Amino acid sequence: MLTLENINKVYRTDTIETLALNNISLTVGEGEFLSIMGPSGCGKSTLLNIMGLIDEPSEGRVSVAGQSIADYNSKATARFRNQHLGFIFQSFHLINDLSVVDNVELPLLYRQVGSKERRRLAEEALEQVGLKNRMRHFPSQLSGGQKQRVAIARAIVGRPDIILADEPTGNLDSVMGNEIMDILLSLNEKAGTTIVMVTHDERMAKRTHRLVRLFDGSQVQ
């Protein structure tokens, strides 16, 4: 489902060069739930951004859903990302001026899905995460756990092949964190969604199929 081949990422300024990722090769199978761990600054989020086609490697090749995106221009990459990938962020990234259901509809708006179909799919996604009764609320009226549920609904509304989650339980207490993890596991087990999750929480990582560890930009496990 997702293949990285000999990925290097270098950040350069006028005076310094920083190697963020060093020769990473990794395959994520269809229906797998993979977690990525490592200390702060080890390259986890950089790796996730490259997997999600948000950032480009300095060297190496990325293939998603069997397609190499090496020759895609920015518009084609954005279209591919919208159609095949869903994103969940630690800080939710909800738009406060939009209602819950309008936040969830956003990825479909960029696909130019009709309004009735957008609403139907958004309500269905919110029902999956147990928040359909909050669809008219605004993010400011929700708890942290509820905001993350909305973020998950937004990620799954377009029925992506892969969900990329960056510290999805990082801003939540243990009870809410476990609830969010249960939702992700259900998506993986019942819907067969492939999930890659960056986490600092060893307990959460142990609930996934496989764990990859990074240290100073290199894969150590």
Give me some keywords for this one.
221 residues; alpha/beta; Rossmann fold; 6-stranded mixed beta sheet; 4-stranded antiparallel beta sheet; 7 helices; 10 strands; 27% strand
Fold topology:
Layout: E1 2-12, E2 17-28, E3 33-37, H1 44-51, E4 59-64, E5 67-68, H2 74-84, E6 85-89, H3 100-110, H4 115-128, H5 144-156, E7 162-166, H6 174-191, E8 194-198, H7 202-205, E9 210-215, E10 218-219
Parallel strand pairs: 3-8, 3-9, 6-7, 7-8
Antiparallel strand pairs: 1-2, 1-4, 4-5, 9-10
Helix pairs in contact: 3-4, 3-5, 4-5, 5-6
Sheet-strand content, in percent, reads 25-35%
Name the structural class.
alpha/beta
Total helices: the number is 7
Please state the overall shape, judged from the principal axes of the Cα atoms.
globular
At CATH's second level, what is the architecture?
Answer: 3-Layer(aba) Sandwich
Radius of gyration: 17 Å
The helix content is 25-40%
| CATH fold topology | Rossmann fold
Number of strands: 10
Query: Strand arrangement, largest sheet?
Result: 6-7-8-3-9-10
Our count of domains comes out at: 1
Contiguous low-pLDDT stretches (5 residues minimum) are none
Could you give a quick summary of the protein structure above?
This protein is 36% helix and 27% strand.
Description:
This protein is of the alpha/beta class. Helix content is 36%, strand content 27%. It has seven helices and ten strands. The chain has helices spanning 44-51, 74-84, 100-110, 115-128, 144-156, 174-191, 202-205; strands spanning 2-12, 17-28, 33-37, 59-64, 67-68, 85-89, 162-166, 194-198, 210-215, 218-219. The strands form two sheets. It has a six-stranded mixed sheet with strand order 6-7-8-3-9-10, sandwiched between helices. The longest helix has 18 residues, at 174-191. The model has no long low-confidence stretch (mean pLDDT 92).
